[in-house]
Design brief:
By secondary structure, the chain is an alpha/beta fold. It has helices at 45-48, 91-94, 151-158, 175-178, 201-209, 249-257, 267-284, 296-299, 306-319, 355-364, 367-377, and strands at 28-33, 36-41, 53-58, 60-62, 66-70, 76-86, 100-108, 118-122, 127-134, 139-145, 186-189, 213-219, 243-248, 261-265, 291-292, 324-329, 344-348, 388-392.
Length: 395
């Protein structure tokens, strides 16, 4: 029975970064190792990772998911794309849709959108129509001409980047680049994997020069990442939104054979790798369903070993002639969770009383309080465009 109020702290508005630094790798980097806290600049991170490190980052790409239409009276109706429905519920395939697609959405000013009313938007090269197919479920059908254009290209042409709501400002043209990692590749997220925003090509080169191995996973972050935890008596009752992820078989093979430290960039990379362990547990027990439920780790009384799990998952992919694992997770990592894969975590500073705050507390224990106190006293910038930290597991 974990109370969310135990994971609160005073975050002044002035500490929330509204804009990124001009040079993203000049952000501060808090270091927590062996119970000691210090800091330097992020561009020195390669000096802090041991030579036997494997660094795994999330290469999802933020889509400009805010589509703003104007109806006949001049009222603006905002359609915020959440989850694809048609022609596929899988983000990868939905991005490739041509001519037509249906999404579950958040809709701003919904009361002004009448049933049967078609919203229209035109650019020099596109004509896009939006129809409300289910008012209760917020299903919106988008159709466009030319019909041979893929959905991903349409969205990038007409949409706006969905910067976090706590910034209390409109997105700018600069956000199109700054709210994206330099290694972003696979379209589908509606929020950035912000721990990765500090990396530059120069930092990546320094990692390579220090022979630190690097790999990528893809987890498409949903808007649920900003949903506050409201269940005071038992945080496990919080509704975790499921998120889709993709991991290449060769990454799983590296993890199986790797004997060093696994450092994950961001809570999303951590959720992905820890979810892989539980999917391997499913595969080992012949109950694989490609989905990790919120409390699955806490309901498994006798999990298998790390090696057994990743071996079983690779065997499952081989048996089905797959080079990638496509799966979904709503895993909830809270204090008491037994980390199976990750040794170190690169992460920003999170909102009080959030699921991300619970994850950090699970990773570093009660040390989270002194870590956040240090950051506040040393003028660290908080949240998405804020500063970073490199945390070691446990004490």
């Amino acid at each position: 029975m974990i109370k969310i109020s135990d994971f609160s702290y005073d975050l002044p508005q002035s500490k929330i970064a509204q804009y990124p630094l001009k040079n993203r790798d000049e952000s501060k980097l808090l270091l927590f190792k062996s119970g000691k806290i210090s800091h330097k600049t992020f561009n020195k991170i390669s000096e802090e990772l041991s030579k036997d490190s494997l660094l795994i980052s999330n290469n999802t790409k933020v889509i400009p998911a805010r589509l703003i239409f104007e109806e006949s009276t001049g009222a603006h109706i905002e359609i915020f794309l959440l989850d694809p429905i048609f022609p596929s519920t899988e983000v990868v395939k939905a991005m490739e849709a041509r001519g037509k697609a249906t999404w579950k959405c958040m809709i701003g000013n919904l009361k002004r959108w009448k049933d049967g009313q078609v919203l229209l938007m035109k650019t020099e090269e596109l004509e896009i129509r939006a129809e409300l197919r289910d008012r209760v479920l917020r299903h919106v059908e988008l159709t466009w001409q030319p019909a041979d254009k893929m959905a991903v290209d349409v969205i990038h042409e007409i949409g706006k980047i969905p910067i976090p709501p706590y910034m209390n400002r409109d997105a700018t043209d600069e956000d199109k680049d700054s709210y994206q990692t330099v290694y972003a590749k696979n379209d589908g997220a509606v929020a950035a994997p912000t721990a990765g925003l500090h990396f530059t090509n120069s930092v990546l080169n320094s990692l390579d020069e220090n022979n630190i191995k690097r790999e990528f996973v893809t987890l498409h972050i949903g808007a649920g990442t900003f949903q506050p935890v409201k269940e005071e008596g038992d945080v496990t009752k919080h509704n975790m939104h499921a998120e889709q992820f993709v991991v290449k078989k060769r990454v799983l093979e590296q993890l199986l054979e790797f004997e060093g430290n696994v450092t994950v960039v961001g809570t999303t990379s951590m959720r992905t790798l820890e979810s892989c362990f539980w999917l391997g547990n499913q595969a080992f027990n012949n109950v694989f369903n490609g989905f990790v439920s919120k409390l699955e780790p806490y309901e498994c009384s006798n999990p298998i070993s790390y090696k057994e799990s990743f071996r079983a998952l690779i065997d499952f992919l081989d048996k089905n002639q797959l080079e990638e694992l496509h799966a979904c997770t709503e895993i909830m990592i809270v204090p008491g969770y037994d980390f199976k894969v990750c040794d170190h975590l690169v992460t920003n500073f999170h909102q009080p009383e959030s699921t991300l705050m619970l994850l950090v507390a699970a990773f570093v224990g009660e040390n989270w309080k002194s870590i956040y106190e240090y950051a506040l006293k040393n003028d660290f910038r908080f949240l998405s465009y804020g500063d970073s930290s490199l945390l070691s597991k446990g004490a």
